Amino acid sequence: MDDAHTVIWNRPERAAKGPAPSRTRAEITSAAIAIADAEGIEALSMRRVAKELGTGTASLYRYLASKDDLLDLMLDAVATEDGGPPAPTGDWRSDLRGLAHRSRAAFHRHPWMTSLAAGRPSLGPNSLDAIEHALAALDPLGFDIDVMITVVDTLQAFVRGYAIGELAQQEAVRRSGVGIQQWMDAHAPYLDKVVKSGRHPLLARVIRDAELPHAADSAERGFELGLERLLDGWEANLPVRPWRSGSVN
After folding, report:
1. SS3 content of the chain, % helix, strand, coil (to 5)
2. What is the pLDDT of residues 133-167, one digit of tens each?
3. CB of 100 within 8 A of CB of 155?
4. Distances in Å between the alpha carbon of 115 and those of 20, 42, 71, 154, 161?
5. pTM score, whole prediction
6. In this predicted structure, what is the pLDDT of residue 70?
7. Contact 64/45 with Cβ under 8 angstroms?
8. Long-range Cβ contacts of 80-84 (<8 Å, 24+ apart)
9. Residue among 222, 192, 185 at smallest CA distance from 208
10. Lowest mean pLDDT among 98-102, 104-108, 116-120
11. CB 226 within 8 A of CB 162
12. Residue 157 Cα distances to 131, 133, 222, 227, angstroms
C-alpha cells in the first residue's frame, strides 16, 4: 500500500531512504494551527503552510500525503497541548467533568476544531489517550462497552454544541459591533409585546422570571448546569452503584 493510502499514524516521520528531512511534522503542524487560529480553517492550504514555512508546496508532500493528513495532525496536536489527560481520580463524574472543561477550552482556543471534530474521529495517539482516559473513568461502573463509548460521544457532542453556540455569539458581536446587553436592550420592547400577547406563556416565564439568561456568567453557569444534568442522567442508569464518600449504607 502506498503512502497516499496508509494512515499518517502508520507511516514513519522519516523515510528509510533519501536525505534527512529539514522539517518535522510538529513544525508543519504548528504552522498550520497558527494559520487556522489567526485566519480560520478556510485559509488553510498546503500552499499557505509552505509559504509560512518558507518552502515550496511540493516539498510538504515529502512529509504528508494530503491535506487530510495535516488536519489529522492538527487535531491530535491540540488534544495534548494542556498536558493531556490527568491520572484517573477514581471519581468518574470528576473525570468526565474535567474532560468536558478541557474540551470546551480547546474549542475556544481553536474555533476551527468545531467543524473538524464533528467529522470522522481523530485516531492519533494523543486523541486515543483522551478517549482511553474517559473510558477508564466509566469502566468500573458496569456499563456495556457500547454504552460507554456512547456516553463519551454524547459528552463530546454536548461540549462541541455548546462551544459552537458560544463562538457564534462572539462572532455576531464582532460582526455587528453590538454587545449582548445592547442587543437585549434593543429587543426589550418587542419581547414586552410577546409577553403581553399571551401566545407563548412558557417563553413569557423565561423573559420575566429566568435569571440565567441575564447573568453576567450565564455561559459558565449554563454549561455547568447542562453538564451536571447529563452526568445525573447517566448516574441514574448505572448498572452498578459506585460507593461515594459520605454515603449511607
Report:
1. 65, 0, 35
2. 999 999 999 999 999 999 999 999 999 999 999 99
3. yes
4. 35, 11, 11, 16, 10
5. 0.84
6. 95
7. no
8. 80/126, 80/129, 80/130, 81/106, 81/109, 82/106, 84/126, 84/129, 84/130
9. 192
10. 116-120
11. yes
12. 14, 17, 16, 11
Q: Who's near 212: CB < 8 A, 6+ residues apart? A: 218, 221, 222, 225
**What SS3 state is found at 62?**
coil
In angstroms, rounded to a whole number, what is the distance separating the alpha carbons of residues 170 and 202?
A: 27
Grid coordinates of 97: 467533568
One-letter identity of residue 83: G
Cβ–Cβ < 8 Å for 126, 8: no
Identify the DSSP state of 20: P
Query: Where do runs of H (alpha helix) occur along 7-90?
Result: 25-39, 46-53, 57-60, 67-78
How many residues can be counted in the chain?
249
Per-residue confidence band for 19, with pLDDT thresholds at 50, 70 and 90:
low
Q: How many helices (H) and strands (E) does the chain have?
A: 11, 0
C-alpha cell at 207: 423573559
**67/61 Cα distance (integer angstroms):** 9
Alpha-carbon span 35 to 32, nearest angstrom: 5
First to last CA, the chain: 59
